[in-house]
Design a protein that fits this description.
Strand content: 25-35%
Structural class: alpha+beta
CATH architecture of the largest domain: 3-Layer(aba) Sandwich
CATH class of the largest domain: Alpha Beta
Number of domains: 2
Shape: globular
Number of strands: 17
Helix content: 10-25%
Order of helices and strands: EHEHEEHEEEEHEHEEHEEEEEE
Number of helices: 6
Largest sheet: 6 strands, mixed
CATH topology of the largest domain: PvuII Endonuclease, Chain A
Length: 288
Amino acid sequence: MENQTPIIYTKESLIEKLLDIKAMEFVPNARHGNAGGIGNTLEDLLGIEENNLPLPNAAEWELKTQRIGTSSLTTLFHLEPSPRALKFVPAIFLLKYGWQHQEAGKKYPENEMSFRQTIHGNESNRGFKVVVDEEERKVKISFNFGKIAEEHSEWKKFLESGIGLGELKPYPYWGFDDLAAKAKTKLNNCFYVQAEVKKDKNTKEEFYHYKKIQKLTGFNFDGFLDGLREGFVLVDFDARTGHNHGTKFRLRQNFLPRLYKSVVEINSIEDAKAEDSAQPIEINVEED
């Protein structure tokens, strides 16, 4: 069978299609049992193939989906910290600051270690913190042993007998320029679609109503740095002995518009009018 010609959208035609989908109200999850059902179902309704690769052309748009009322975080992008030659997360955080994985001796070997931390501008219960250093133009990770919670007292003793309880030396960081370039590549223009979810009590099947559509343009890097300071943008480390799942910059629910210079809620086709609305675009769908 011949491959179908890929669908090419302009901003105006994409908005028209999203409004049609909104008017459908609740639609069944097209991938029953798949945790990424909201994004996958929207892809199917739009007639586009699954694609989670970053698209570097500035004319392209990210299409982010999220459940209304979820406590889960939105992934903005992945970027490992510098100095990259050190492979900081697996070689330093995991080996020197890690702790026994909760599945060690069960799903994983007895010696399986974990370093899984989601941190921001206030110390985590293990003493880690994000610091925005304007003078050095870096986002750094800092460590303060005095902020380790009592529940992690055994881990504190482990550090004291090993790496010690001082500040991180060297410390992991991201240069402002690297962060801005990565964010611009992934997030310069974005459609943010939020869906109400309901579930059938008998079949457990989910249904989605894509009811809120926002067009976000002009990524605001200063707003991103403010988010790190205020705690609505977070850095997520997720490594274990067998695998580093990658370092992510993530966002709390409903804060995505704070990262853009222009925010337009789409309620009618008139909201799609723009000088370049007839320019074809490529779109990249992601769900959190």
